[in-house]
Amino acid sequence: MRFPKIRDNLVVRQFLVGRNLRALWKEKGRTKVMLELQKLKELAKEWRGKKVLVLGDLMLDEYIIGVAERISPEAPVPVILCEQRSYGAGGAANTAINLIALGAEVIICGLVGNDWAGEKLKQILSESGADITGILIDHSRPTTLKIRIVAQTQQVARVDVESRMLLNGSMEASLRGIARELGRGCDAIVVSDYAKGVVTSGLLSGLRELKGQTLLISGPKPKNIWHFAGFDYLSLNRSEAMASVNGVESFIEAGKKISSQLELQGLVITLSGEGCALFANGEQLVQLPALRVQVYDVAGAGDTFLAALTLGLVAGCDFVDAAKVATVAAAAVVRKVGVATTTVDEMLQLLKGAI
């Protein structure tokens, strides 16, 4: 079989992985559950400086933190005395921040509104080291904003400002064009889909033109999952996988159907405290256990998992080892409160304690 000459022989590696992975990992006795410390160090060196395009639903997280002193005379709700306000990157922007924290170079492609929240989000991303060349302004929608109100460390309310309308034709064409152009020079394209209308079938069809030149990976929402046919790798949580396929009784059945029908190189279904299950060619490859850590907050852990999985793959390791890398990263981040990121050093420290 002849292959096109592309960077790092990506197509060749994906073909070999797809052909040999099931046979390699079918023998349970050969499956090493724990990622080796030296292996992680070597992979981190390989992925440092790799260029990744992140495309998807960009969000700004706002936290209003204070104390509840009394009940409002207007309604039976607490009155929160605000003591602190802070902002962070959410949605696809959080995936980008996670990639940067792990050592990748990131270009972001998406939409913000013509508003203060959009400017704030671009400022956060730029200061984090992201290239925001691909962020366009859509005057027809607001920047997606998630406002969390916290009192005495307890979240008491969340207010969402967003539009879920699909992109209009001209905006979709503009975003598809710039994503395709920016993606040509990247080692991977990560589509972070939160079903806010940005990730459309037309947008994805433009990205598929780059298949074989760059890795295509995503964390899709169930309503959009069938638009991702032909992508290389997908990552879903258990509930998303079950919601994606009608009439299935287990995540294993869902994983087999999704990986087969979408013709994926690999599918990961994360299982919270039970680890993650890997599928390819319509079959389950292996289920990896989670690292046992004290869990403080799972918010944003899916973005961390997706980011680390991507970097493991672009570093050249096989699908199973990439999922092990992602498992360590997710375990490191759930030990923190709030939407957070982790670093290679933190992952190494965690792994040292687990061995």
Derived from helix and strand composition plus strand pairing, the structural class reads: alpha/beta
Q: Portion of residues in helices?
A: 25-40%
Give the tally of β-strands. Answer: 13
Q: Indicate the overall shape.
A: globular
Poorly predicted ranges: 1-31
Task: Please outline the major beta sheet.
Answer: 9 strands, mixed
Q: Over the alpha carbons, how many angstroms does the gyration radius reach?
A: 20 Å
Structural domains: how many: 1
Mean pLDDT: 89
CATH architecture: 3-Layer(aba) Sandwich
What strand order characterises the main sheet?
5-4-1-8-9-10-11-12-13
What are the secondary-structure elements, in order, as H or E?
A: HHEEEHEHEEEHEHEEHHEEEHHH
- Rounded to the nearest angstrom, the distance between the terminal CA atoms is 42 Å
CATH class: Alpha Beta
Q: Helical element count?
A: 11
CATH T-level topology: UDP-N-acetylmuramoyl-L-alanine:D-glutamate ligase
Strand content: 25-35%
CATH superfamily name? Ribokinase
